[in-house]
Amino acid sequence: MEHVNTPRETSGTRAAVERWSAAPLAFLGGLPRWVLLVAVFGLLVIGMVGTGWVGAAGLLALLLVLAWFAYLNWPALETPGRILRVAAMVALAAFAAGHVL
After folding, report:
1. Structure pTM?
2. Burial of 58 (0-12, 13-18, 19+ CB in 10 A)
3. ∠50-52-56 over CA atoms, to 5°?
4. What end-to-end distance do the CA atoms of the chain give, in Å?
5. Is the CB of residue 38 less than 8 Å from the CB of residue 28?
6. Residue whose C-alpha is closest to residue 39's, from 81, 31, 70, 10
7. 64-79 CB burial, b ≥16 within 10 A, e <16
8. Which residues contact 96 (CB under 8 A, 6 or more apart)?
9. 42 CB neighbour count, 10 Å cutoff
10. How many CB atoms within 10 Å of residue 33?
11. pLDDT tens, 17-74?
12. Can you give the chain as a three-state secondary structure string?
């Protein structure tokens, strides 16, 4: 069963992040689906093709977006979903570190 937070269930940092995220998520939700897909693939291509700090910056930007979405969805995720998100974030961080080093 999926768990959805209600305002009285969230407090502290999570509530602040959820409030801050409401406007950007509403904006993203209003965009055509292909726009976000192109943005994600664009950052991935920049990260994989770019060299040095340019490639690392693309991957780190993608990592930040993924971490933001993962944080917002964490309470509703089951263990396999959490493991997949953490593995993706570790892989992006490792590739970014590889570009810098």
Report:
1. 0.79
2. buried
3. 70
4. 44
5. no
6. 31
7. eeebeebeeeeeeeee
8. 47, 55, 56, 59, 60, 63
9. 13
10. 9
11. 889 999 999 999 999 999 999 999 999 999 999 888 999 999 999 999 999 999 999 9
12. CCCCCCCCCCCHHHHHHHHHHHHHHHHHHHCCHHHHHHHHHHHHHHHHHCCHHHHHHHHHHHHHHHHHHHHHHHHHCCHHHHHHHHHHHHHHHHHHHHHHC
Q: In residues, how long is the chain?
A: 101
Type of residue at 63: L
